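thread from #wetlab-drylab

HS: before we spend reagent money on co-crystallization trials with EPU, can we at least see a predicted complex? here's what I'd submit
DV: go for it
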Amino acid sequence: MEKLVIRGGKRLEGTIPVSGAKNAALPLMCAPLLTEEPVTLENLPRLADINTLADLLNHMGVAITIAAGQGGRIRGRSLTFSAAEINDTVAPYDFVRKMRASIIVLGPLVARAGEAIVSLPGGCAIGNRPIDLHLKALAALGAEIDLEEGYVRASAPRGLTGGLIRFPFASVGATENALMAATLAKGTTTIENAAREPEIVDLAKCLNAMGAKITGAGHETITIEGVDRLHGCTHTVMPDRIEAGSYAVAALMTGGDVFLEGAVAHDMGAILDKLREAGAIVEEKADGVRVKAGAGGIKGFNIVTQPFPGFPTDMQAQFMALATVADGASIITEAIFENRFMHVPELCRLGADITVTGASATVRGVQKLKSAPVMATDLRASMGLALAGLVASGETTVNRLYHLDRGYERLEEKLRGVGADVDRVPG
Ligand code: EPU
């Protein structure tokens, strides 16, 4: 098991290229299941989660090839996904347990093949994470849902029918599943209280390029007029707003000045607002976002995580790391997941002063963090610890680097590129 060794205290300065968004890429990779024609995705990040989903799609009969003609400004991988035939409609436990986002194959599979059998993901490190909303959405489109031996079977042998889906909570994954399933349903589907995350907009853009008729993505109500078939297309994955936000926090924490090349300010509203409140100078440019530490140091702030356009839960751990070295106290409330404070005891090992009461953490800023070996059980928590390591005195070791490899492409290379003293070493 590899680990990340960080010798803290370096000011970060320079340019960090932002990769394609993991949470846009994963649903986008499922869209090709809806058509027998090839779909090419450009700017895919090189991440463990992408490889896990590629293996699952392969298992189902999707041929994945490196796309020709890659180059120019596009840095990520371009892959072509060809689901000419789907020869297995089962997503086995071995895949789903590795990555619960595998559940997003459910909607496109049942829409295209009339059946999908997907292992129930079970709980995960950040909470219980049920899939009831995914199943209710597919049932509203006429799919029959059965649960058998840890698997969910959705079947619609005569195809899905458009209908009204009203989510009691704006779930990202359930909206993506519903959106993809509805593209091939007979008639019109309306999704009310849909998730409004930019990744949903990116998915709808790709589906529309495949011939779908979707309007309203990015708003509370999405309308999908079903079509008989979809065709191939080429789509470029949006930049990763969470990766960009994480490095933006690194810039402020280290008193630095970093240009996040390719970051889209429009998708990062709540993150950039909070950075400014904490003392950063943020410049929104056409080709990226510049984040610079202000003269007044880091000020305490309050956060409540919310669905987009609110403050993202995927940035909570990183901002908590920022709060540990802020001037004054910050209150951070996690309102999306019930168990997303695993970084708290680890940050305390680095000298942070944090008290958790229910879903809220009170963080009192300290003068200095001190290095220690730390370990987290999820991706964003690990990033929070890495950020703390960047400002801690001495050498901080973040164990279980594989968590970071799920969501941060070339992490140590990007950090080294702006002056951090970081190494990947064998465990
Ligand atoms: N929920 C239900 N029932 C459902 C679906 C969700 O109760 O059927 C609950 C969840 O348990 C959770 C809340 O609703 O408490 C939010 O879940 P949501 O469905 O919106 O999240 P997701 O689709 O499972 C995606 C991202 C997460 C991100 C969340 C929230 C992907 C692959 N994952 O998960 O990303 O935290 O949205 O924004 O897009 C990460 O990248 O580190 C990560 C965990």
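DV: DSSP finds 14 helices and 24 strands in the chain.
HS: ok that's useful, forwarding to the group
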